[in-house]
């Protein structure tokens, strides 16, 4: 599985996680676990309407309530000159038309645009006092028509959510070659059409968002403790655009964070509210989200409505693909939202196939719903689901085997680097290898016997396959800049070797379940030849770490780890100079391995700790040539995306009496590049699979026509529980990434990306005797029961014609 | 989606409860992890808030405030309960065990060790509740099979999706003679 041998604690070893003890004993320090002396509490009054004009806000009664220190509305925010919540990506659509980018105020100004839009803030001595006082704020609203769906927002004559977004359209964008695609379709033996809605999801990290603002009037320094995946990004967005506080006066700390899955990338209004109000009141201000509030204020995910057409020749080779997607942005643009359906999704339309001509279009739409942004996989699950369902539909219509049609169209290993018609250049992969391994692991050949056995028990058994790739490790700054990103996407590592040879690593990435404190330590331990116990990983504090872009898009090891390698290279280069001086040899003759600087071909050597000590006690030292100390910083800008991929095979059984779908077996073989800690990689893949199965079978976000969120609690929004998630057969089959120094690709999202179509392909297969060609996600018991018991075949939710 | 709206008048606001800063304060004794604590608090205070805000025991986590996620699970007289749905005043005279009280000094409880051995968590937020719940699951006699464990651990959500490994950890402890 790996390119190196397996030392006990270096690269390739399943080292038990070093974070474990504090989490297991209740000593983790999550934001809500922290309290500051003299702290006040904020409660946010949110809109009960999806779309309404604010005619007036009377805060007098609330301000007079016990313990209340302040009540703020948009008027206060505007009077203070604060900016709006910024968007980090500007998409340019057809004809050079840049996206509509309406103001996203910290507190709703003039109008509310979704249920949950923050309207006012109460700051009081206790949380209950703030909450009680918020109930005493009288807001006069004039309700306006809700735009609960994209169809409603795009309907002729629909009211505008934002005056500066005509037609409620954010952008209308395209990629690929329309003319070449039309030409391909003109020669097609068959055109297969498929429509689907990728169901809207709520990320629901178990830790609700929380934030504490603090302010030191003597130094003028603001501090924000927040549940973030990327504290430096929050410092940049909030400091530069909202509060207008320079970096050296603003410290952002993201301590232990209880899961993110994308939802904690973004800069949220509450972070600005507590930071600003703490400075106003000269006391710390804490806010902790309740779960029902989280449903109404954390960015949601997915929500794409897509029509696709695939042109095939007589043998089943893909000739062309035409895709048109409506992407829901929600009420305002969240930080990465415009990039998700475009550069993180439509650029994947080639998948693992050699389709020569592709044209994709995306129209992004404002609706009166919670903003939608990246959620585990971010755009790639949507495209993967579309492609892998479409391929199954095509196989059926062509009368071909589902595996055979995939194999016929795979990009072969000898075709890398492979330039797709939709901008990406894949560097490596072996899709046949992961397919073969998954088929073997799943005993695909034995399936029909299992199906027959299940039938004898009165169960409908089906098997589904998905062969996929994704693009992660984002991303080359120059490229993303051309595509509209307003930041670079490099990563930063500062490595401080202490005099006695222990090592502190300061990384701009952030760990919130990924086990970085272990994986990164293994990497540094192996490269520097220092025991694991002598390596410390520090993240999550802009006051300690030079800079960083954070953790999302499966980038931490591919980009952040590469920055560490670069910094370590500098350390080793300096160490060689010191060693050459001490050993009276030339630098060119000094080799470094296993923690020893050695004169090549001799037994004359200096240990790593002797070199670090010499660097800090430079009595015998090349002081004319190099500075004392042993600390280096590196910025690593990736050369390309990385392209993990693989094969997922799901086996389901349906109880026709209840319509319940049980995942009875799930086999995944993924190529995530080099594996540092197999145990952690397996955990990441399993976690992604659990979320993918959740999307496919039970999770769904439902708004009514008035724009009320009906699925706004764990009693209404079905989360995967222990009963729904099977044991997985997870393995890896490796090709190395060719353009980063570790050969790593990323493993955080593959599970969530590859699995939903495998599940639905299995469900459709289980229902093959019922003439079903498609089931929309989530495949709930009600939906399946209705299909099985539909007397009228026309009532079936058939998709493809 | 095009049904008529009546934008003329907002529905009248419900009159909020009278502002009352003098909510009754209860003085009570909580027995937590073998220690008695004499505390005074608003009678509305949940056991979860009492543990976190009054005793500084932040191991039990707020996850949903509705008893639907299990992150706040503690043992009350040996039974697993959602601390977010339990009023602190109702637990007087009962023995409360939180994650902080599970280890014997430096020695981890077998369930804590099993969670390490089986990599049964990632972000760690639901973990205290999972471990407490797992201990009770075995003591209740509900750890006879993987299926039974899944069923009786289904009140504890883990968004990181570590369920397969949690099940293995519980099975491991159960096989070694329980919790």
Q: Which percent range fits the helix content of chain B?
A: 25-40%
The CATH class of the largest domain in chain A, by name, is Alpha Beta
Stated plainly, the CATH topology of the largest domain in chain B is called: Ubiquitin-like (UB roll)
CATH topology of the largest domain in chain A, which one?
Answer: Aldehyde Oxidoreductase, domain 4
Could you describe the largest sheet of chain B, including whether it forms a barrel? 5 strands, mixed
How are the strands ordered across the major sheet of chain B?
2-1-5-3-4
Task: Give the class of chain A from helix and strand content and strand pairing.
Answer: alpha+beta
- The residue-averaged pLDDT of chain A reads 96
> Structurally, how many domains make up the residues of chain B?
2
Shape of chain A: globular
Concise description?
With 801 residues, chain A is α+β, with helices and mostly antiparallel strands. Chain B contains 5 helices and 5 strands; from the N terminus they run E-E-H-E-E-E-H-H-H-H. In chain B, strand 3 and strand 4 form a beta hairpin.
Please describe what this structure looks like.
The complex is a heterodimer of chains A (801) and B (179). Chain A is α+β, with helices and mostly antiparallel strands. Chain A folds into 3 domains: 34-144 and 206-259 and 264-297, Aldehyde oxidase/xanthine dehydrogenase, a/b hammerhead (Aldehyde Oxidoreductase, domain 3), CATH 3.90.1170.50; 380-468 and 642-795, Aldehyde oxidase/xanthine dehydrogenase, molybdopterin binding domain (Aldehyde Oxidoreductase, domain 4, 2-Layer Sandwich); 490-636, Aldehyde oxidase/xanthine dehydrogenase, molybdopterin binding domain (Aldehyde Oxidoreductase, domain 4, 2-Layer Sandwich), CATH 3.30.365.10. Chain A is globular. The model of chain A is unreliable at 1-6 and 792-801 (pLDDT under 50). With 179 residues, chain B is of the alpha+beta class. Chain B has 2 domains: 25-101, Ubiquitin-like (UB roll) (Roll); 110-175, [2Fe-2S]-binding domain (DNA polymerase, domain 1), CATH 1.10.150.120. Chain B contains 5 helices and 5 strands. Chain B has a 5-stranded mixed sheet, sandwiched between helices. Chain B starts with 24 loop residues before the first strand and ends with a helix. Mean pLDDT of chain B is 88; it is low at 1-20. The interface between A and B is large, with 86 and 72 residues.
